[in-house]
Amino acid sequence: MHTKKLNQSIVDRISELLESSSIDRVLAEIEEFHPEDVAELLERLDLEQAKALLYALPEERAAEVIVELDEEVRASLLQEYSGKELAQEVIENLDSDDAADIISELPQEKIHEVLQSLEDPDQAREIADLLNYAEDTAGSIMAKELVKVNASWKLMRCLREMRRQAEKVDQVHAIYVVDDDDRLLGTLSLKKLLTTSTKTPVSEVYDRKIIKVTTDTHVEEVARLMRKYDLVVIPVVDHEGRLMGRITFDDVMDVMKEEAERDYQMASGLAQDVESADSIFALSKARLPWLLIGMLGGVISSRVVDFFDISQYPEMAAFMPLIAATGGNVGVQSAALVVQSLANDSFNESILQKLLKDLGVGLVTALVCASLMFAVTAALGKPFNLSITVSIALVSVIVFAAMFGTLVPLTLNKFKIDPAVATGPFVTTTNDVIGLFIYFSVAKLIM
Amino acid sequence: MHTKKLNQSIVDRISELLESSSIDRVLAEIEEFHPEDVAELLERLDLEQAKALLYALPEERAAEVIVELDEEVRASLLQEYSGKELAQEVIENLDSDDAADIISELPQEKIHEVLQSLEDPDQAREIADLLNYAEDTAGSIMAKELVKVNASWKLMRCLREMRRQAEKVDQVHAIYVVDDDDRLLGTLSLKKLLTTSTKTPVSEVYDRKIIKVTTDTHVEEVARLMRKYDLVVIPVVDHEGRLMGRITFDDVMDVMKEEAERDYQMASGLAQDVESADSIFALSKARLPWLLIGMLGGVISSRVVDFFDISQYPEMAAFMPLIAATGGNVGVQSAALVVQSLANDSFNESILQKLLKDLGVGLVTALVCASLMFAVTAALGKPFNLSITVSIALVSVIVFAAMFGTLVPLTLNKFKIDPAVATGPFVTTTNDVIGLFIYFSVAKLIM
């Protein structure tokens, strides 16, 4: 089946069918939908309709859909489930990582209730374990379900044991090889398993070159490793090297995506993770911080202008926007380049090298911009003094902004603050203000 | 092995060893390195040293490393390989997608030479096929290597055939089920294969719910589907439904990453895909377009200021930076939200709904900003007329910029232009200019 986008007409039709209480027709209609699409449908229906539909779904399917829901929608939809219902209808049908995810969003007293209502004590213990790991660590996003074999087994026994283990694991991405103390030694490839004699011992054919993380590795580092080494799955070990779980690529894709969106929003001046669909209040709240910082910059700029007493040279006013905008633009460009190379871990130059290069780039762009502006101001019939002032100010502003835009994210990074903050308000606003200051200082010297 | 970042001291030591021509010691030192790390090492050595090291690597390992190299470094390193050497030492050791990738970067005459020098005619045909697909389509990034079974086979025969096919395939992510005409019917899970009696026919146990793309699907759509449905691998079919190849998650991670970086660079005013490490010339070239557009805006702003004859109200100059910056900031915020929801395919509102909401957000933020500025200007002892002018201008500018910032990317998207362009120069600069125009128009009315 090719997946089509869930268009509004399908949502409307299903909504009508639900109104006329033809729930069976709805179930027939969505039978071929993937869980992700049912989740999207629920998110777009009224809450009451969504609840009715979710209740009508077969238990296992409902659980799959619940995993894919938006966190907020999920909270509303699950509100009326008792702890026991949650445990037996939802959690028991899920992998440990998804189960832990959903449970961690519940209120404290309900978490306890759910864990107590689970019928399988192993599952309850595994989930409780996962809930203990600190947020943003490998432990907090790993799953316990995996297929492992002992290095001393023959391949025949592996196949037999894997058959048993695979019952519990949805998708087998890797077969881990451990020693008698459960310490991770390597992986056994499916290819080797299929193409080697079944009498061969595992120890002769497994791959020892394995990339692993510990339970306390930061999720962004996990994402970096999986991306760099193109891994579908990465094993997680404790500090004794024992195999604790595994993280699959889809969880890491989510981390990467969140990271990229955060940087993008930072660069566009949004202070919180918002989307178009959020409320007017949430959107305004995310926008105001940058606007207010920008306005603070504007107020300081106004003080700079007043300080130099613009009424003496009113013709200077015309080029203030140009100077301020150019300073801001150059600063953001420099900062973005640094943020990107820090994120890609490709920052191999020394800070001095980097600054010297930025000086070069600054000078090249500054000379192009300044000579152009000199010609333009002359063509507009501006006085020679003003043309010279604008051009010299431009060179100084561009060179300064280029180096400042580089230094700020590097400094933030040194103090373990997310350098992407620099591409937001701080660099632009500071460069606006300092740009004007430079402009007027040059003017004072020349005019 | 835990992977450590390749630090400068390791690079320096290896560089020294290469100088003293202890190539064997270098080979021993990097024996445990993953291909990705060897590639990074080569990128950080001098070209001559890198060449020497690459030549010294065993053939299969060299091929793995070459795949991981930066495009430009790869071009320099491969320059001296003849077509025949490339074919027999590099290409023959690679999967079809990587092979096609590397060949497509070569000069036209060399492509021909390489294809002719391949010993396996099947491989040559497969690569030539892949080279035919248009850039940015699923066909252009898929690989031909896959494991497939016929729906009419029993599982026992599957295992036997898979053993044979697996010889050619590095990692088995999925087992595809096809009919006698090679049309894709579904997938057989490893779990089913391991846990079902070997006498069962494939047709009874395979999964018919399969997400697939056609050879001409755009890579960004492929990425969207794989991310949405958490797929490790996605099959590619032709328009008759025949199985042509498969795309793995790592290729799509690259697409996602490029996409995210492009949007980020667009939002930060960089016109081309550059990194910190590029040359001063390349960096200047990527920066100048936005700077020049910004300067054009600055020149137009200067005309607006001249047109309203600022020397009549020189005190207005002080708040020009504030008005211009706020307009630009609001516009970018709006545009970024639209770009993001278009990219996430979560844009479900009608344009009218969206604009009404933006009007709401604009009004809320505008009222907060304007009342604050009214208080600040009053506190600074500015004349009442000027305070009122600044506040009214702010409200108008913010509301206008919010709606304009929304409309521009939506319009670009309608005309199939990447809406992310809007977060770059166009919206900021236009809002700067229009902001000043509004400011002076309000002043004309009031003062």
Automatic annotation (TrEMBL), chains A, B:
Keywords: CBS domain, Cell membrane, Magnesium, Membrane, Metal-binding, Transmembrane, Transmembrane helix, Transport. The chain crosses the membrane at residues 288-305, 317-339, 359-380, 386-408, 420-442. GO terms for molecular function: magnesium ion transmembrane transporter activity; metal ion binding. GO terms for cellular component: plasma membrane. It is found in: Cell membrane; Membrane. It is a multi-pass membrane protein. Residues 142-204, 206-262 form the CBS domain. InterPro entries: CBS_dom (IPR000644), CBS_dom_sf (IPR046342), Mg_transptr_MgtE_intracell_dom (IPR006668), MgtE_N_sf (IPR038076), MgtE_transporter (IPR006669), SLC41_membr_dom (IPR006667), SLC41_membr_dom_sf (IPR036739). Homodimer. Acts as a magnesium transporter. Belongs to the SLC41A transporter family. This is Magnesium transporter MgtE. The lineage of its organism: Bacteria, Pseudomonadati, Bacteroidota, Flavobacteriia, Flavobacteriales. The gene is mgtE.
